[in-house]
Amino acid sequence: MEDEVSSNEPTSDDGPNARMVRYWNSSATAPWVTLQDRLDALLGPAGDAAIREANPKSAEHVLDVGCGCGGSTLEFARLVGKLGHVTGVDISDQMLARARERVVEKGFAQVTLAVADAGSFAFEPAGFDHIYSRLGIMFFGAPVAAFDNLRSALKTSGRMTFLCCRTAAENTYISTAVQAARPLLPNDAVPIPGPDEPGMFSLANPSRVQDILGRAGFRQIELRRHDERMRLGGPGEAIEAANFSLQFGPLTRVLNDLKPAAREALISAVANAYRQIDGPEGIVLQGAFWIVTARP
Ligand SMILES: C[S@@+](CC[C@H](N)C(=O)[O-])C[C@H]1O[C@@H](n2cnc3c(N)ncnc32)[C@H](O)[C@@H]1O
Q1: 230 DSSP 8-state letter
Q2: What residues contact residue 190 under an 8 Å CB cut-off, 6+ apart?
Q3: Helix (H) or strand (E) holding 3
């Protein structure tokens, strides 16, 4: 695999995304690598709906922003074929290492992966037909500048398509665990980011998305609601589902710092909440997303 963008672009220690660089390279997010199969199964259907919206064609060039362990990158590589090209960028060394392994396993020569901050990386101007992201685009500390940077990487005929979360309240596959855990934790243990701060729900407000993308120079900005049933575990698997969800949601940071007894109590509280909704299909909660499209 050739690395024409950069194989190891230093990610800024003090730029607007410094906190996120630390977070996505920390032990709190290591489960995104170890649980890659399960997270792809969970997030894949919503991500695939956004890929269908992007509708990439053979021989096109795609930039996958915040590609993580590469699930969507591999799918784009299949769709654009050997004549096309997919560039996956991410600030997380650990997740990109897993993506690299998977690209090699598939033998996809049409993929380039780079450790890079998509908000500031000097992409080839007008180099891409598509910019895409599956939940990797909500973490910019300076979002207007970041999206402006991405816009300049699109051909004039190109299009950006991304999947982002609607509100925490609508995304019960994340919020149910947080609500169950809160009574056991100090008030400030799970800080709620402000509406303008980077994080999973930073693009939940459609007016904010329109404002940011508009100020970044995008036009024809459209948001379409996409709901998905998120299955965290099978029938009777409340404990397993609690263990799973606690490793990728906002409670991960908290969990790592707890003593074993407190950790068990937290898992048990979340499992109890899941038992209330356990049904014939198991523990199925709501995923609420926007599929956003825009042109440069
Ligand atoms: C919620 S994860 C999603 C990962 C992957 N797209 C998936 O769906 O499995 C968010 C990803 O965005 C990446 N990310 C956050 N800020 C970024 C930035 N400024 N530039 C590139 N990647 C970023 C993180 O490192 C992480 O891999």
Answers
A1: E
A2: 178, 181, 182, 250, 251, 254
A3: none
Q: Are 92 and 29 in contact (CB under 8 A)?
A: yes
Q: Which atom of ligand 1 is nearest to the CA of 120?
A: 19
Angstrom distance (rounded) from CA 280 to CA 284: 10
The 10s digit of each residue's pLDDT in 141-153 is 999 999 999 999 9
Q: Which atom of ligand 1 is found nearest the CA of 139? A: 16
Structure-token pair, residue 273: 């909440």
Q: Which of 17, 86, 92, 230 to mutate to test the pocket of ligand 1 (most atoms within 8 A of CB)?
A: 92
Going from N- to C-terminal start, the domains of the chain cover: 18-295
174-185 pLDDT, tens digit per residue, is 999 999 999 999
- What residues does ligand 1 touch, defined as CB less than 6 Å away? 17, 20, 24, 39, 43, 47, 65-69, 71, 89-92, 95, 117-119, 134-136, 139-140
- Look at domain 18-295 and name its CATH class: alpha beta
The string of DSSP letters for 247-280 reads: TTSTTHHHHHHS-HHHHHHHHHHHHHHHHHH-BT
From ligand 1's centre to the CA of 66, what distance in Å? Answer: 3
